[in-house]
Amino acid sequence: NSKNGDLPILPGATLGVLGGGQLGRMFAHAAQRMGYFTAVLDPDTDSPAGRVSHHHIHTDYDDVDGLARLAGLADAVTTEFENVPAPSLEHLAVARPVSPGASAIAIAQDRIAEKAHFTRCGVPCAPYAVIETAAQLAAVEDSLLPGILKTARLGYDGKGQQRVKTRAELVDAWQATGCVPCVLEKMLPLEFECSVILARSRDGQIVHFPPQRNLHRDGILAVTEVHPQNMPKTVAQGAVNSAKSIANGLGYVGVLCVEFFALADGSLVVNEMAPRPHNSGHYTMEACDVSQFELQVRTLAGLPLAAPRQHSPAIMLNLLGDLWFTAEGGDKPVSPRWSDVLALPGVHLHLYGKIDPRRGRKMGHLTLTGATLEAVRATASQAALLLG
Ligand code: ADP
Ligand code: MG
Description:
Layout lengths: L13 E5 L3 H12 L3 E5 L13 E3 L6 H10 L2 E4 L6 H8 L8 H7 L2 H10 L7 E4 L2 H5 L8 E5 L9 E4 L2 H10 L5 E5 L3 E11 L5 E3 L3 E6 L2 E7 L6 H18 L3 E10 L4 E7 L9 H4 L4 H10 L12 E7 L17 H5 L4 E5 L10 E8 L3 H15 L1
Parallel strand pairs: 1-2, 1-4, 2-3
Antiparallel strand pairs: 5-8, 6-7, 6-8, 9-10, 9-11, 9-13, 11-12, 12-15, 13-14, 15-17, 16-17
Helix pairs in contact: 1-10, 3-4
The chain binds adenosine-5'-diphosphate (ADP) and magnesium ion.
C-alpha cells in the first residue's frame, strides 16, 4: 500500500525523518550534502537533527496533524529510531514512499517477534524463553540461568535489562519490570561482539560494510574497531550471510544493522537488529568511500547503491556525558580537552549538539583513521588518555 511511483527522488527534493537524535542529524547532513532538503519530526524542540534541518515539526510521533505536515513537506520518509509507532509509518506510507517499512520496524521493536524472525531465517540466537505470564515464568528451564532478563520492548543501551543468577532473582526481576512481556536469555561467554551493517534496495540489491568488532561497557557501545584482521574470516562471512538472510526475510528496504555474539568455539549467534544506521557504523563516514548515512539516503530516494570500500583502518570511540564530569569540575560539566585530542593525527571529532551532558548520554564520538591498524590503535590510546 505504499506509494513508490515517483522513484528515484532526485536531489532538490525533501527527505523526511522521524526522530531527531544524532542518527537523524547525520542522515540530514548526508542528505544535504547530496542536495536534498530535510524535514525532521521530533517532539523535542531542541533535537540534534531538528537543529540542522530545513524543517522541524515538533509533535508526537502519533500526532495526525504532525504526520500530515511531514507528508506535505517530504517526498519520502525514513526513521532514525525504532520506537516510532508502526501505525504512524503505515499512515505516512499511504501518501509517500517510506523505508524501512512498518512491518520491519514492528518486528525490531519487539524482542519476542525479533527472535522469532531470526529463527524463521535459520539464524541461531542465544537460548531463551518468552516470559509473558506467571506460568511461563514458572516453566523456565534451569539451563537458562544465569541469564539476562530483557523487556521485550523499549530497551536500549542496556536499559530494561537485569542479570539474574537464580530463580528467586528471576522472579524478583520480572516483578520489577511490572510483569511486562520479557525474554530471558542465557548468559553466554562472549569471545567478542560484532555487527554488520547492510543496505537493501527496493529491488532486493544488498551492499554491506565489513563486519565491525564492538566493545560494550555497562551495556553501552564504547569502542568499534574495523580492520580485515580483526576477526576470523569464517566468522566475518557467517555474520554477513546471516545479516543478508535476515534482511531478505523482512523484504527490508533501507539500512539495517545486525549485532552478533561470537563464542569461544568459533560459532556465532545473533543478538539483535536495528532498522536504521547504527552507532557501530559511524566510522564509515571517514573510513569508507560511502557512509551508512549516504546509503540510507540512496535507499530512501531509490538511487543506485554502491558497494562500500573501506579505505582506512578505523577505531570509533563513543563520547559519553561522563567525560564532562571531572574531579576538578565536581558537579559542573567541563568541556573535554578537544584541542589536545585534535592535535593527534587522523582524529575526526563529532559532537551532536546536545546542550546538557549527562552520565551515560551519547554526546558524540571520535573516529580515528590512519595508515595502519597499529597507528590507529596508538592514536586511540593517546586520545583515551587525554580524555581521561
Ligand atoms: P540493547 O538493546 O540495550 O543494546 P543488548 O541485548 O544488545 O541490548 O545487550 C547489551 C549488551 O549486553 C550486549 O551488547 C552484550 O554486551 C551484553 N549481553 C546481552 N545479552 C547477552 C547474553 N545473552 N550473554 C552475554 N552478554 C549479553
Ligand atoms: Mg544492543
